[in-house]
Amino acid sequence: MDNSPIGDVSTLSPLTVSVTPGQHELYAKVSGPVIDRITSGYYEQNKVYYMSVWFEGGMWASSVRITPIPKLTEFEVIKYSFQ
């Protein structure tokens, strides 16, 4: 967030972060030939935001994106393995 690491995210352990109100930039850093996409937004005081971190594969370039989502009450983990 805002060019500073704040934690690790995995499919089984979501990341919870408290931030000051205002404009912030979110991004995910991953290994491999992936373009870092920046998600910029204004975050209000005392409001909870839920975000999804997802991979968008492309023929010439791939991206990791962060997008706002509604609150989840349950989820299913789907894991792909390339051999």
Break the fold down into its secondary structure elements and pairings.
Blueprint: E1 22-26, E2 34-36, E3 39-43, E4 50-56, E5 62-69
Q: How would you portray this structure in words?
A:
With 83 residues, this protein is mainly β. It has one domain (1-70). Helices cover 0% and strands 34% of the residues. It is built from no helices and five strands. It has strands at 22-26, 34-36, 39-43, 50-56, 62-69. The strands form two sheets. The protein has a three-stranded mixed sheet with strand order 2-5-4, with no helix packed on it. Strand 4 (50-56) and strand 5 (62-69) form a beta hairpin. The chain is globular and about 40 Å long. The relative contact order is 0.22.
Number of domains: 1
What is the helix fraction of residues, given as a range?
under 10%
Give the termini distance in whole angstroms: 33 Å
Apparent shape: globular
Average pLDDT reading? 83
Order of helices and strands: EEEEE
Radius of gyration: 14 Å
Number of helices: 0
Number of strands: 5
Give the DSSP E fraction (strand runs of 2 or more residues): 25-35%
Structural class: mainly beta
pLDDT < 50 runs, ≥5 residues: none
Oligomer: single chain
Largest sheet: 3 strands, mixed
Task: Provide a compact summary of the structure.
The chain has 83 residues and is mainly β.
Task: Give the key terms.
83 residues, 5 strands, mainly beta, two-stranded antiparallel ribbon
